[in-house]
Each structure stands twice: as structure tokens, then as C-alpha cells.
Amino acid sequence: xxxxxxxxxxxxxxxxxSSADRMRERALRLKLAAIVVLIVAGLIYNWYxxxxxxxxxxxxxxxxxxxxxKSPEDPASANTKTxxxxxxxxxxxxxxxxxxxxxxxxxxxxxKTTSKSxxxxxxxxxxxxxxxxxxxxxxxxxAEPKPIVVENVTLKDLDGKVIYRGRIELQPTIDRIAAGKRxxxxxxxxxxxxxxxxxxxxxxxxxxxxVHPTExxxxxxPQRVVTGKEGELFYTHDHYRSFKxxx
Length: 247
Description:
The chain is an alpha+beta fold. It is built from 5 helices and 7 strands, in the order ααααββαβββββ. Among the domains are: 14-68; 149-245, Microbial ribonucleases (Nuclear Transport Factor 2, Chain: A), CATH 3.10.450. The protein has a 5-stranded antiparallel beta sheet with strand order 3-4-5-6-7, with helices on one face. A two-stranded antiparallel ribbon has the order 1-2. The termini are far apart.
């Protein structure tokens, strides 16, 4: 079907133009035919792929068929399994029911105990809660130093005769030393040389001796208190033969 009219006596240029138009129209028709052919070929290819996938030789289809072709389970064994599962479920239900009942009983008992303890307090507890009357706060006082006392002392005179047995209270002499008071005896407050070395060795003039009076004796007697420059305190009851460190 050609829609273009043939030239009937026109010029050659008009004939050429009409020929070119016809060639373009044919080329367009060929392109459309090729596109149609490609579409049909694609549809055919898709149909072939779907058909080959649904054939019995396919692996997935074969597995499904094999699973479907397996023999069904024996009805007797199926009934036995059903009975066992029913028994186990009934047993579990009974156990859960028993546990719930025990829990309820325990809750009721604890509630009763709590209510009783709240309603009737113990007399001992109520008496313990009662506040005690306030006590007067005593003002803080400095602790008085303990008096220095030596127990079980035996005093002897120059002849070796026992003149006293008992305790010796040295606090009066120590207080007198701290106050800087001296007795009438020449060696009271004098330097103790420590010639016998019965006290720790120190430089000359480190120690001082003080007379501790002996009762019923007018002289200095055998008792002495020796002090050191660093606060040491010694006592001798036998005229320097032995010493007892007091601090």
C-alpha cells in the first residue's frame, strides 16, 4: 500500500524526493518488524524456561514428590504418641495446680503472721522503744595524773637493819622538783655523777639527784630520785646500789 503518487510529468528533483521518502518508509517498517520479532522471541524463551523448570526432572520438584510419596505413619503408633502426649500434659497441669495451691497457702500464712505482729506488738519491743530520760551532760575535765608510787619497798639503815617495809609515795618529791624547791641537804638538787654506770651513759651534768626523805630519820637517808635532762626519772631505795626507772 503506497500512499505516495508517482510523478506524472514533474521535474526530476520531485521524483528524487519521493523516492527518498519511500526508502525511509521501508526502513522504518523493517525496524518495527525487527522489534516485533525480538519481543516474540523473548516471550518464547520465557515460556521455555518456565516449562523446563516445572518438568519432573527438576530437583526441587523431585524432592517434593518424594516427600509426598512417602508412606503415611502407622495409625496405631500415631494413637500411642497422642495418648502419651495427653498424659504428659495432664501430669504437667496437675503439678502446676499443686504448686499454685502451695503458693497460696504460704501467702495466706505469711499474711496472717504479719497482721498478728502488726496488731499485737510485743511487750519487750514496746518497752525497748520507750525513750530514756535525758541525762545531764557533765563538763569535760582534764584527767589528773596518777601519783607515782613504788610498792613493796624495804628500807635499811647503814648497819643493815630494816627500818621500813611497804609502799613509797614519790609524788610529793616529784612535785617539789617541778616547783624548783630544795631541801636543806647539800646533795639535794646536785649533779649525779653516775660513777658506777648503773644508769645509761650520758655527758657530765646530765643527771641530778634529789633527796626523798625517810620517816623517822633526820638525815637524807638512803632514798634518792634522779632526773635526766630529757625527762627521765629513776628511784633508788638503797643509796645508789640499784635503780628503778619510773619514766
